[in-house]
User: What shape does this take?
Amino acid sequence: MSQLLLSSFIILLSIPQTKSATWVDDDRISFDGDQGWAFYDKVTPDTDRCLTTTCQVSDATTTFYGPINNAFLILQRTFACKYNSDVSIKYNVAACGNLPGISNKDWTRIQLDGDQSSKVTIDSNTIIASTALDTSLCSNNNGYFTQTLNVDSGFDNSVSSNQTFETQIRIKVDGGNVDNAYIYGIEITCTPNGNTPAPTPQPIVSGTTSGTYCVGGFTGADAIYNGEYSTREEQPYLNSEFSYEKNDYNGQSFLYYNQRWYISTALDATGTDSAIVAKCVESSATQPPDDCHQGVVDGDGNAITLEWTDGECKNDHTTIEYLFGLFELNEETETLIMLITLCLFSYIAGMLTCACWRVICNDRNDKKKLYEKVSNKEADIEFSN
Assistant: This one.
C-alpha cells in the first residue's frame, strides 16, 4: 500500500499544470536584474542611476518606481515560467501634467526578450492620492492620475519551460504633456499553453575578457561581498580585462588590479584604504586574480575564493509557478514542501500498513481463539458421554 501511495504522489507531481500563476512585485531594486529590478536610463544602460538618484518612494501600502521626468527610463528584470507559457504583464502608471484626456507624446511599452509591444500613450485619468508622490514636480494643481495597462498581445510572449526571459518596462517622459510619472503595481502572469516553442539559441561566448568571477568566502556582515563580479567593459579600470563589478540587491563592490588584486567598495582604493575588504596576499603581475598563488584574504586573514565562469554563478531570477494550482512559491519553498509532503505520505502509508496488519493479526487471533473454544467444548461433550 505504501508503494501505491508513493506512486500516486509521484504521478500527481508529474501532471502538467494548466492554472495561471501570477507573480506580484516584491519592490526590490538590484542592478543585476536578477535579484530585483535594474532601473536605468536608456542613454546610459551601464550606469546604475539608483546610486545617485531616488528610484523608489513609498507610502503605507504602495511602492512607486520613480520619479520619471525628462528621461527615457527602463525597468528590467529576468524571470522564468515553470511550464511552457504565454506571458502577460500588468502595471500602473501614475502621472501628472496637463489635464487627463489630452493627448501627448509621452508613452510606455513592454519589451520581452527584445520583442516589443506597441507604444501606449500615457493618458492617466483616474485620480490617485498618495503622500509618496511629489506634487512639486507637477506644473498644475490637479495631482496625480493613474492608468492600468494589461499587455498580453502584439509581441511574442511565448516562453519555454524554465527558459529565462528578460522583461523590460519602458517609459518615456520627455517633451510631452506629462510632467512626471511613476510605475507601480507590477504583476507578471504565466499561463501554461501546452506548446513546445523552438529551442532558444545558445549564447556565443566572446572570449576570456568577458565573463564573471564568482566570489565566495565572506561571512557575517561581509557576506554581502559574495556574488558575481562581471567584466566592466563599458567603464574599464586600467584595462577592461582587469576590472569587475558586482552591483546587486546587496550593493556595489569591485574586483580590480592596481599593483595587486583588490576587492573593495571603491574602485580606486589601494594599500590600507578602509574601503578594501579583501586583497591578494602578494603583489602580482597583471594576471587574472586567480593567479594570486598565496591566495586572496579578507581583513581577518580568511581565505576568499574566486572562480571564473563564462555565464552566471547562480540563477537568482524569479521562477513563476503554482504548486498543484494552489500556491505561488519559489523553487526552494516548493522543494521543501514536496519533501515534507513525501514524508507525510510515507508516514501515513506506514501507519495504514501497521493498522492493516494489526487488523489481520487480530482477526487471525480471534479465529484461533474461536477454534480453540469450539474444540474444547467438543472435547467436553465427548468426555461427558
